[in-house]
Write a structure and sequence with these properties.
With about 325 residues, the protein is α+β, with helices and mostly antiparallel strands. It folds into two domains: about 120 residues, Rieske Iron-sulfur Protein (3-layer Sandwich); about 180 residues, Alpha-Beta Complex (Naphthalene 1,2-dioxygenase Alpha Subunit, Chain A, domain 1), CATH 3.90.380.10. It is elongated and about 75 Å long.
Length: about 325
Amino acid sequence: MREGDLWPALREYWHPVTLAENVGERPYAARLLDERIVICRLGNRWAAFNDLCIHRGTPLSLGWVEGEEIVCAYHGWSYNAEGRCTRIPSVPPDHPIPKKACLTRHRAEERYGIVWVCMSEKSRTPIPELPAIEDPSHRIVVRDQRNWKCGAARAIENFVDFAHFPWIHEGILGDRDHPRIPDIDVERDGEELRFGYTNLPDRVHPVPHTRNYRLTRPFSIYQWKDETDGRRETLSFVCMPVSADECTRFLIITRNYDQEGNPQRFAEIINNQDQVIVENQRPEELPLDLAEELHVKGPDGVALAYRRFLREIGVE
């Protein structure tokens, strides 16, 4: 059993597709769970459809938006936010429009500056909670969207693989002279896994702090780092499953304090160090059969809990 086996059930979850700022006057093309979709803003509503005009199979992402409707570039057929065809220019206005002239519509909402899509009429859970992004006491210092050539679960697991910090992020997130990680207890709360640990002062982190994590199924992490002086930094890391071997990952970092340095540059360094490793893991999609890869008690505790967590989706 691997990540791709979850695709049918994952249609019932909300997935981040793109930063809202990427959707302008033209429709935005994307691929979610190996299906081509198109996103647009029709009036004051977000809309998402299969990227396919019902007439001759032309991608709607090649078209444009007129008012509150999306228009196909091939023959000018227009569709409203419900996906119903409202105009066929090649026939007289009084000519009836076929009832089957409808698009396959998906639910779409904007939150945290991200457009989310659910491919089912009923979602298993709401859009994940990432509270600091909407907290007026916090300032967004990084907002980043990138494609990785790996499964979404591989990217999520890498984020909570603390044992790799001293090796991939030496001198930044970890110290190779102190590679051991603390014991971490993982607690289950419905659709969430919760865990955390305390960083004692060391060469890399001179200020003691705690890191807490909330991992929401399937591909969302909210992490907050609290220092003893009341300063808090949060990282929201969410992934869209493009296909079994590709994902789009979003990173939003907030702080309730000002600090010198370039947080965007820091995030790019960490991204580049992780990406070259994760994109070369095989298989690209995360194995959910625990016997397929070797695990070590302690350091791999969070990863094991996450893999078991995902497996439940496929059997519910």
